[in-house]
Amino acid sequence: LTLQPSLSFSQSAEDILEKMIDAQGGRIALEKIQDTVLTGYMEMVQMGLGGSLKTYQKEPNKLRMDATVQGAVVIQSFDGETAWMTNPMTGLTEEMPPVMSEDFGRSALGNGALLDPGKFGITYILTGKELLEGKEYFVLSQNFSDGFKAIFLIDPETYLMYKTKTTSKNEVGKEVDVETVFTDYKNIEGLLVAHTLITYQDGREFMKMTITKVEFNTGLEDTWFNLK
Fold first, then answer.
1. Could you tell me if 140 and 13 are in contact, meaning their C-beta atoms sit under 8 angstroms apart?
2. What is the DSSP secondary-structure string of the chain?
3. Which of 38, 44, 119, 165 is least buried, going by the fewest C-beta atoms within 10 A?
């Protein structure tokens, strides 16, 4: 792994963003997406657990994830203002702690974070190139107005997302480095969607998600994301 922040570039962050948008299917196609539903399954490697997973995202900033593990359904949701979850121990619904809520709220941002980042107080900076396994990737820094930052590694051949890097809190409240690798892109109604996502915490594989079905514009109601 080699970081080379001093390289000169012929492309700006704006150029990279536009090429990412084009690679996924184009600005017009992405602007038509009102909601996205992903169905699949997950493997929590370190815990030795797995189960089905369904995520619902409604533009611009609503997200719900329903996971079924060992017969129990665990819900995490953000309604645009409040993040909440079902407590796996009690089965009761409760608001997420502030740090979890902030993380989940950022995850809820949809295509607008690329199409119109200024609307969400987001700026992008092209910071360098990173060499991974003999291949150089563009390094794009996504900066939020509250100081939070995420790093995107963009494939220079396809201009699709290969990896994201950020920090978060784990299940016991410890800060961890989080990396997610996106592979197995497939064309769904003219849009390229990654069907395999592998997340690492502090360099160790934490969760693998495999998408089996992608649906767009299903008519999700705002109430679907509200605290029950």
1. yes
2. -EEETT---SS-HHHHHHHHHHHHT-HHHHHT--EEEEEEEEEEGGGTEEEEEEEEEETTTEEEEEEEETTEEEEEEE-SS-EEEE-TTT--EEEPPHHHHHHHHHHT--THHHHSGGGGTEEEEEEEEEEETTEEEEEEEEEETTS-EEEEEE-TTT--EEEEEEEEE-TTS-EEEEEEEEEEEEEETTEEEEEEEEEEETTEEEEEEEEEEEEE-----GGGGS--
3. 119
Beta-bridged to residue 150, according to DSSP, are 142
> Does the pLDDT at position 49 exceed 60?
yes
Over range 89-107, report the average pLDDT. 89
pTM exceeds 0.85 for this model: yes
CA pair distance 161, 21, nearest whole angstrom: 11
